[in-house]
Design brief:
This protein is α/β, with parallel strands linked by helices and 298 residues long. The protein is built from 13 helices and seven strands. Helix content is 38%, strand content 10%. The chain has a four-stranded parallel β-sheet, with helices on both faces. Strands 1-2-3 form a three-stranded antiparallel β-sheet, with no helix packed on it. The protein starts with a strand and ends in a 15-residue tail after the last helix. Bound molecules: adenosine-3'-5'-diphosphate. The site of adenosine-3'-5'-diphosphate (A3P) has 20 residues, from helix 2, helix 5 and helix 11.
């Protein structure tokens, strides 16, 4: 095994140009082509560290484009077919030929994404989520995702996350790097917690980035069909339709709790202290603060 590889039972993580990918899902040569893609002004890339609200934003973008009409969102088997991950093998050809607007999601680091973004071509929506909840959500996702190694227990996963031995690498590096490039691009930086707190104003900000003038009624339809409770009822949006090869639906749901502060039900006091220490060290110069508890916004 190369020094840069972390072997898992089913797939292995491979480090490519400083970023961890999943073998069998991501091909390094394929990923290397992404930075050369030509962009259009109307392209929108949703960038997230895994488990920060990616599928939520897929649903919101599709609904904004459809002016709040949920029937046009249900055309595909699941939203990932309409708003695919750019790094997944085989999606590049479709991207090049797709009609505008092209919506894509990605977990990649900045240096692997189209260089044209930094020339203000296309738009970026970066969603950040408090990393304790990301860790917990990612732990549960590892139990259902067949392409990821099932952790022995929460502590096992906690250690992996802290060592950045997960797809996506270090949460700290991801957010800091993307944030440091925000002024070069047309970027909306938004947090999962802001979306929980006030989905209507988040939807307004997103639709104005897209240059869409929706009526109040259309905006409220977008909000209505993208709440956690309503999205859970839409199989295309909740990823219930994803094949069993990829997701083990017996082990849990993609749409799990959809709230802030579930880390309190998982972290031990010692884990929390250690996390806080690392967070403080890594994020001391980061200008934004996070919301760690649902009670802080209600
Ligand atoms: P939890 O596991 O904490 O419930 P991603 O799409 O980036 O993988 O993120 C998945 C997380 O976003 C899951 O978090 C999921 O429940 C949450 N999520 C998805 N849709 C949501 C919605 N409409 N409202 C709130 N949370 C949502």
């Amino acid at each position: 095994m190369d020094a840069g590889e972390v072997r898992t039972q089913k797939h292995q993580l491979l480090t490519h140009r400083g970023f961890k990918l999943i073998s069998g899902i991501h091909d390094p040569e394929y990923v290397d082509q992404i930075c050369h893609l030509e962009l259009r002004d109307s392209d929108v890339f949703v960038i997230t560290y895994p488990k920060s609200g990616t599928i939520w934003m897929q649903q919101i973008l599709l609904l904004i484009e459809a002016k709040g009409d949920p029937s046009s969102v249900s055309q595909a088997k699941y939203n990932g077919d309409l708003v695919p991950w750019i790094e997944v093998e085989g999606t590049r050809e479709a991207f090049i030929t797709a009609p505008s607007p092209r919506f894509r999601v990605s977990h990649l680091q900045h240096h692997l994404m189209p260089a044209a973004l930094s020339r203000r071509k296309g738009k970026v929506i970066y969603i950040a989520r408090n990393p304790k909840d990301v860790l917990v959500s990612y732990f549960h996702f590892h139990k259902i995702a067949n392409m990821l190694d099932t952790p022995k227990d929460f502590n096992d996963f906690f250690e992996r996350f802290m060592r950045a031995e997960v797809f996506g690498g270090s949460w700290f590096e991801h957010i800091k790097t993307w944030y440091s490039h925000r002024e070069e691009m047309n970027m909306l930086f938004i947090t999962y917690e802001e979306m929980i707190q006030d989905l209507a104003s988040a939807v307004k900000r997103i639709s104005s980035l897209l240059g869409k003038n929706l009526t109040e009624e259309q905006l409220s339809d977008v909000v209505k069909h993208s709440t956690f409770t309503n999205m859970k009822k839409i199989p295309q949006a909740s990823y219930e339709q994803v094949s069993d090869d990829l997701l083990n639906h017996q082990q849990g749901n993609f749409m799990r709790k959809g709230t802030i502060g579930d880390w309190k039900n998982h972290f031990t006091v010692a884990q929390n202290e250690r996390f806080d220490e690392v967070f403080h060290r890594e994020m001391q110069d980061f200008p934004l603060s996070f919301i760690w508890d649902i009670r802080d916004i209600r």
